[in-house]
Amino acid sequence: PPTLPPWLALNQARAAPIKLRKLQKDLTAHLCQKDIYQVINAIYLAAGDDTKKVAGAADFCSILVNSLEMTDAPTLCAAAFHYSSLVSVRERELGISTAESCSVEEGECLKAAGSDAKYLCSLAGSGIEEFGTHAVKIALDAARLKSMETLAAKVVRKNGKLLGRLSSADARNLRSLLLTVNEEGDWRALAIRSAACLYRLEGLEAYRALASAADGPGRRRAASPEESRASQEALHIYAPLAARLGMFRLKTELEDAAFRTQYPRSHAKIAALCGGANTNSVGEGMRSVLDDISHQMKRLVQEDCSFMENIENVSVTARVKEPYSVWRKMLKISKDADGVNARDLSVLDIPDAVATRVVFKARKLTSDESDATTQRRERELCYHLFDLCAQHWPMTSADSRFKDYVKHPKENGYQSLHYSSRKRWRGTEWPFEVQIRSSEMHRVAEYGVAAHWSYKRSDLDDAQHTAIPLDRTSEAYLKSVQAWRTKQATRQRSHDAVPA
């Protein structure tokens, strides 16, 4: 009998209450109880009487909250309806729907627009209008993107296979197509579709784990066509789109999940080299170096009185480069260095394989100090910490380097100071990197400029005190990222021009 795809079939009705409670807990730090209730109500209404859809929609919304920090109620309500409507379309196509037929509104929509509009029509009569015009627009834009993805998938199928391998040109064209289709649409629809890719990958991974357990130890399963397709889409379409939007956490999670799914042996090997659950000398050395560098950095920060007097809080954390990034870096080094095989490289050849990250927030020295003044002092404190690092770990090797993304932000708004050096451990020189940034820079680095907007602005969607509606189109978002970057660079130049 026909069944739903693995990432949907695993949803269990009995898990719905647990997943809803988890989502509510995740939202507590971001939304008031009224908005949280609105999101939960949207999930139930979108799912109808199907508790499996409730469980899946809760998981889907959790990805938006935790991987993208998209915590506004309209987006989450739209995501809930988008998820449930797509599942309903699948069920009807497979003939396994619990509903006898589609709604009257959806039937009229399909009759007028045709089957290509099935994802748009599935929202007709769903009740999403109860949650405001913003939620409706986001859901409709996400449905349009899904329709375009489906049409594009048919184009890349070759030789009767489920999926032909995506070429660089195909991937580039698909990315451009999605951006063009959504140019006048809400950019959050792109984020929802990117999150859908991660949801699909995580579901496939969970299904593979269950299947492998049933097969018994020692047996490896080759990647299924669905896994290959989802991995290729993640690596070549949605991860680059997430990077374009400045959503680095989502980009990283998409890449790592796709790498783990498509190339499990390579992922396991790289993860072991990066200090995973192993006892080899490389993993032990990486953990020891990272622990020692982090400890020394904490001491440097805490013992610097001038720094501590100017901050409200500071955190020093350790970071190991993601397996996919390490793998890509090894391939690049191998390509740039003629005759060097990537298999002969190790993490010792990756300058930023391990890093210590310092994130701080400056305190206001007076009650009337402006945000601009505080941000200027935060930039100055970044360079102060860099001087401490350079004194403690001098640039003694040829591959020591300093990258100033504070004065020269990346195009997507990323700001941070990167300083790399080496530390000797058991007769071997180990590379490491120190990353220094303010809490505001860190927020942008993790979630993109959009998170910066959400954090700073008080004029939230559908709020009565919003005088001017926000332009949330994808085109406006990308332009605003560039405008934000230009503003940061102009502010830095103005600061540099002030005589000491």
Please explain how this structure is put together:
This protein has a five-stranded mixed beta sheet with strand order 1-2-5-4-3. The chain is α+β, with helices and mostly antiparallel strands and 500 residues long. It has 20 helices and five strands. The chain is globular. Helices cover 60% and strands 9% of the residues. About 5% of the residues have low confidence.
Gyration radius (Cα, Å) is 25 Å
Strand order in the largest sheet = 1-2-5-4-3
Q: Give the proportion of residues in helices.
A: 55-70%
The arrangement of helices and strands along the chain is HHHHHHHHHHHHHHHEHEHEEEHHH
**Please, how many helices?**
20
- Which stretches are low in confidence, meaning pLDDT under 50 for 5 or more residues running? 159-163, 452-470
The helix/strand class is: alpha+beta
The gist of it:
This protein is an alpha+beta fold and 500 residues long. The protein is 60% helix and 9% strand.
Task: Please name the defining characteristics of this protein.
alpha+beta, 500 residues, 20 helices
Secondary structure: elements and pairs:
Elements: H1 6-9, H2 16-27, H3 33-47, H4 51-68, H5 73-94, H6 104-113, H7 118-121, H8 133-156, H9 168-181, H10 187-215, H11 225-244, H12 248-262, H13 264-273, H14 281-302, H15 305-308, E1 311-320, H16 323-336, E2 354-362, H17 371-392, E3 401-404, E4 417-425, E5 428-438, H18 439-447, H19 449-456, H20 474-497
Parallel strand pairs: 2-5
Antiparallel strand pairs: 1-2, 3-4, 4-5
